[in-house]
Amino acid sequence: MQPLSTPSPAVARREHMHRAEPEASWKARAVADFGQHGDEDLAVSLLGAVRALTGQQVSPEHMWVSSARRAAAVSVDNIRFRWEQSQLVVLRPCVHCGLGQLASLALHSRADLGYALSAWQPRHPGCEQEDPTDW
């Protein structure tokens, strides 16, 4: 006979299963919510951030959304914006070779956007700035 304080193996398994069900159900609900709302949340975040900085209303049909990458992108007047990791960035090709899509620093203000559109010179690590000819 087992002491009263130690449950039998069958009772212990049943108790474990009951504890596991709530754990599994909250996980299942979270995964379901992600599947139902993941793309929508990304789209709303991107469109809201772009509108706040540019004043432009963008149609959701013109955007790309990837739940797997947790990213969304849209072009406004030939400027490509991406929302990823809860940050808005501008994507531009390398100024040296013209290839790729390099991300700016995160855009938090219209001044940040102005910098990304004018002064920022995106370059691949291998595309070094040339020395001035009168150097």
Explained architecture:
The mean pLDDT is 83. The chain is α+β, with helices and mostly antiparallel strands. The protein has a domain of 80 residues. The longest helix is centred in the first third of the chain and has 46 residues. It is built from two helices and five strands, in the order αβββββα.
Percent of residues in beta strands: 15-25%
Strand order, main sheet: write it out. Answer: 1-2-3-4-5
Strand pairing plus helix content: what structural class?
Answer: alpha+beta
Main sheet summary:
5 strands, antiparallel
- Broad shape: elongated
Q: What is the β-strand count?
A: 5
* Parts with pLDDT < 50 across at least 5 consecutive residues: none
Through-space gap between termini: 94 Å
Radius of gyration: 25 Å
| Helix content range | 40-55%
Give the helices and strands, then pairings.
Elements: H1 9-54, E1 63-66, E2 71-76, E3 79-84, E4 87-92, E5 102-103, H2 110-117
Briefly summarize what is shown:
The chain has helices at 9-54, 110-117; strands spanning 63-66, 71-76, 79-84, 87-92, 102-103. It has 135 residues and is of the alpha+beta class. The chain has two helices and five strands, in the order αβββββα.
Protein traits:
135 residues; alpha+beta; 18% strand; elongated
